[in-house]
Design a protein that fits this description.
This protein has one domain: Jelly Rolls, CATH 2.60.120. The protein is 34% helix and 26% strand. A 4-stranded antiparallel sheet has the order 1-8-3-6. A 4-stranded antiparallel sheet has the order 2-7-4-5. Helix 3 packs across helix 4.
Amino acid sequence: MKTIAELLPEIPLFEGLPADQLELLAGCGRNVVAEPGEYLFTEGRTANTFFALRHGSVGIEIPVPAREPIVVQTLHPGDVAGWSWIFPAQPWAFSGRAVERTRAISFDGACLRGKCEEDHELGYELMRRVAIVMAERLRFTRMQLLDVYGRGEAA
């Protein structure tokens, strides 16, 4: 059985990080399992974690009153979910629900923020990488909303 530090290089977000930084990050992580239909996180609640998927898939959703949630993106092994943990007491911007049995590494946001404060090089590198995830998630959201709410008419 691999340790969390040994699993992290398999996640693209952590590729290429030095072993000492992986060990620091691993100290903030724990393995979790979510069954189909189970929420890993819910929009509006305080975001104090983020997830690196190892197996399974998670639908990133936007709740819609009186309708089924809009699935913005489906994440697969190697993807990460969550960026709101970067700032204390921020709410989740989306919900994440397991589509199938999912195994992930859950990272404690307060622990990660502490590690980033102690090691500014690690903090910069982690924030740079998470910013790329944020930009991608927003792009997917925009495309999904255009698909759902676009008129579909020629200009």
